[in-house]
Amino acid sequence: MLRALLLENVHPAAVEILRDAGIEVETRSGALDEAELIETLADFQILGIRSKTQVTRHVLESVPGLLAVGTFSIGTNQIDLDAASSHGVAVFNAPFSNTRSVVELAVAEIIALTRRLAVRDKALHDGVWDKTAEGSHEVRGRTLGIIGYGNIGSQLSVLAENLGMNVVFYDTAEKLALGNARRVETLGELLEVADAVTIHVDGRAGNAGMFTSDMFARMKPGSIFLNLSRGFVVDVESLREHILSGHLSGAAVDVFPTEPKKRGDHFESPLRGLDNVILTPHVGGSTLEAQESIGHFVAKKLRDYFLTASTTLSVNLPNLQLEHTGVGRIALLHRNVPGVLAAVNQVFADHGANIEAQMLATRGDLGYVVTDISDVTQRGASKKLMAMDTTVRLRIRDAFERPEFPPGPAAG
Ligand SMILES: NC(=O)c1ccc[n+]([C@@H]2O[C@H](COP(=O)([O-])OP(=O)(O)OC[C@H]3O[C@@H](n4cnc5c(N)ncnc54)[C@H](O)[C@@H]3O)[C@@H](O)[C@H]2O)c1
Prior knowledge:
This protein is an alpha/beta fold. Helix content is about 30%, strand content about 20%. It has 13 helices and 16 strands. A 7-stranded parallel beta sheet has the order 8-7-6-9-10-11-12, sandwiched between helices. A 5-stranded parallel beta sheet has the order 2-1-3-4-5. The chain binds nicotinamide-adenine-dinucleotide. Nicotinamide-adenine-dinucleotide (NAD) binds near residues 150 and 228.
């Protein structure tokens, strides 16, 4: 029987989905370190983690039976993806499941900063009745500048327009402008027109230190700044200076260059204690709705990988969307070099196998060919496929040699 180890309090919805698929599930509330992970994983084929567990090259090399890792988060930095690919370990994440949560926090913060809510709230808690309209504005009619118009940036664009804001965005990739949002060609152009600047770029290495002191200086006097993307994208010392000088009227920051490891740990930042600066502990995507949605999304991807060999939205393997067909299926992950498909089909021909369907996808160094054949109990054929020096991983449903590709309930 297949076994899945789910760490870090993965949502119970995921446990249910995997169990319903016939997979035995063990859960643990905390993360495991490298040595513990290697020792524990020996008995498991599926690993589910969130952001704290590091799946290193050493882990992947030490646990040959591991077939898939589901990261119940957006990011995959905690997994050595190159090592996962070269060992034929499929990695799945949840790229969109908390998008809405991040967007709602950004909307709340844009309004809160524009009304100086943090300042009013603090004064009243300190016993001061600071009733004034000074520095407070409606967001209606103001301009929001979105840097990074991906899943989050584009959804924020829609909600901001519904609040009556004008939206401009800057993205290095070609993106469809939603609603009345206007694309600008340069970051400088955005900074000069926006009353609120919000960053939603991804965490690629090239974005480290991307938002510099010069960029803060180019922002409109009195404008506000938000970062809910990655901490290392922004020069926080410069942000502090521009708040203290009054050039910026406020900021909301959810992500930091160094973040404490666990809940309750001490937090240090140059941004602490500044007026009209909202600091949140990387909770942009942390809602109960998002957790449940992530649990569903990743567990279904893992389940489908085992039941149908489908790799849809895998972050490292070639993507093939596959359905149940009821016939036997041979899923071969191989090095992406010329001639593999011909060699594979020659093996099938030599064994008189009648191919009912075949699909191929490639991605970087890997190829993935999935072949449906009624009679997959051809011992010789699978041995030959395994013996090919291009083979990374072979899974055969209804075969006796490699049980990790079990017949699912619907597979017949
Ligand atoms: N605060 C949280 O809790 C939380 C939760 C979820 C996601 N995030 C972070 O939010 C960010 C956005 O997530 P997403 O799902 O929208 O990502 P995404 O990949 O869908 O979108 C990122 C966009 O940024 C663009 N981009 C990258 N570098 C750029 C640059 N230098 N200048 C302009 N555009 C650039 C890309 O072309 C892409 O369109 C990520 O960094 C993610 O890690 C944070």
